[in-house]
Amino acid sequence: MQSIFGTDGIRGIFNKEITYDLAQKIGYAFGSISNDRKIVLIGRDTRVSGNLLLEALSNGLIKAGKEVIDIGICPTPAIPFLIKQFKIYTGIMISASHNPPEYNGIKIFDHHGQKLSKKKEIEIEKYLNKIKSNLIFRKQSNIAKNFDLLNIYKQSLIDSIGNNNLNGMKIILDTCHGSASVFAENVFKQLGASVYIINSNADGSKINVKCGSTCLDPLKRGINECNAEIGFSFDGDADRVIGIDSEKNILDGDHILFLWGRELMREKVLSRNLLITTVMSNLGFEKAWNEIGGILIRTPVGDKFIHAEIDKQKADLGGEQSGHILSKINNYSGDGVLTAIQIANFCRKKNITLKDLLKTSFQGFPQKLTNIKLNSNDKIFKDLIEDNINKYIKEKLNDISEPCRIFARNSGTESVLRILVEAENKNLVDDISIQMVKIAEKIIKN
């Protein structure tokens, strides 16, 4: 059986890769193997299919003897936070993160508030194979609702900057019709900021559509219109954030890690001057971090790999270029809103604008990321393509004398091949990207 788990849980198009029937069986399988906790928290983003998947998962979980608490629309990091806060729960988040509205996903957390280990994923899949296809799940009405739990999480965000505040700061937020729509504006206003909000309706049919952390155009337009000094754009489940300054310069995850890490280094509270990031992070970031005495360790793409390396290295801070940042402030539960608050607070304390702060960051190498649509979700097919691409990459790099990096991988969340080209010379990046696309398309057709 091909694994249903990707780099961040189970994900796919609703009623195609992820069906009501599959969600019931996943709920039953997870409920049957997780004997250490009886209560399961379930949250969701705003997607239209979220309620159906909530019902389906609950059917399976309750049949397996679990109690379900629905906490409503929330960001993904609220689930691990509440698990660790009350120490009696496991949890599930229904979300496809940054993917379009037709997608949805199931992210499962253990009683430590961590994403499931590979061992647990395999255990669930083995149990799924044992479930009879004609097993009937009755719709359950005894699903408890506790929307007040989100208020406890919200208060933790406000408390994360202690006695500091954001008084007088003009901040624009793009909540991309997703999870952040239900609470981010209120949190920043309670902290004292003047808040302008766009794409603020909790509308699952528009989630991530030409907005949010993967499309900064609305934020760039909005920051001029409202004369804000800083802007933050979240993804569908608010575990990622990308910022911009008043001149539309981009604060991505690499810059967040560099600036935040440097401040912790100066305060002598960054263990071993170490940052954890992924293979996708910019070489300019690594070079600059090494030059100021820092150590950078790369992992495969996916926050679970970053978390595992943070745990292994006893590190304090890590994250992805996409804006998914893990810090010890909230026990490494990647949180876009928390990250945005920390960056704004840093500017406020230092009495510096984000524009001037970004000027002190690293100079990134030109990068180009190309997504090539694959015609099959089959893992063997995808692995063959990746193997052939990487064979060509090795040959290509042998012919290049200047600093250059070419990296190809199959997405763990979409049926695409991602090709990253990076070098100090932008023309070289453009030329190689064109060549890589041609060779990839040729391999795919064959």
Describe this structure in words.
There is one protein chain. The chain is of the alpha/beta class and 446 residues long. The chain has 4 domains: 5-151, Alpha-D-Glucose-1,6-Bisphosphate, Chain A, domain 3 (3-Layer(aba) Sandwich); 167-250, Alpha-D-Glucose-1,6-Bisphosphate, Chain A, domain 3 (3-Layer(aba) Sandwich); 251-335 and 350-358, Alpha-D-Glucose-1,6-Bisphosphate, subunit A, domain 3 (Alpha-D-Glucose-1,6-Bisphosphate, Chain A, domain 3, 3-Layer(aba) Sandwich), CATH 3.40.120; 367-445, Alpha-D-phosphohexomutase, C-terminal domain (TATA-Binding Protein, 2-Layer Sandwich), CATH 3.30.310.50. It contains 14 helices and 19 strands. It has helices at 20-33, 50-63, 78-86, 118-130, 149-159, 184-190, 217-225, 253-266, 283-291, 303-313, 336-350, 354-358, 379-398, 426-445; strands at 5-6, 9-13, 39-44, 67-73, 89-94, 103-109, 144-145, 170-174, 194-198, 230-234, 241-245, 250-251, 274-278, 295-299, 317-319, 325-327, 367-373, 404-410, 416-423. Strands 1-2-6-5-3-4-7 form a 7-stranded mixed sheet, sandwiched between helices. The chain has a 5-stranded mixed sheet with strand order 9-8-10-11-12, with helices on both faces. It has a 3-stranded antiparallel sheet with strand order 17-19-18. α1 (20-33) packs parallel to α2, α1 crosses α4 (118-130) and α13 runs antiparallel to α14. The longest helix is centred in the last third of the chain and has 20 residues, at 379-398. The protein is globular, with a radius of gyration of 22 Å.
Briefly say what this structure is:
The protein is of the alpha/beta class and 446 residues long. The protein has helices at residues 20-33, 50-63, 78-86, 118-130, 149-159, 184-190, 217-225, 253-266, 283-291, 303-313, 336-350, 354-358, 379-398, 426-445; strands at 5-6, 9-13, 39-44, 67-73, 89-94, 103-109, 144-145, 170-174, 194-198, 230-234, 241-245, 250-251, 274-278, 295-299, 317-319, 325-327, 367-373, 404-410, 416-423. A 7-stranded mixed beta sheet has the order 1-2-6-5-3-4-7, sandwiched between helices.
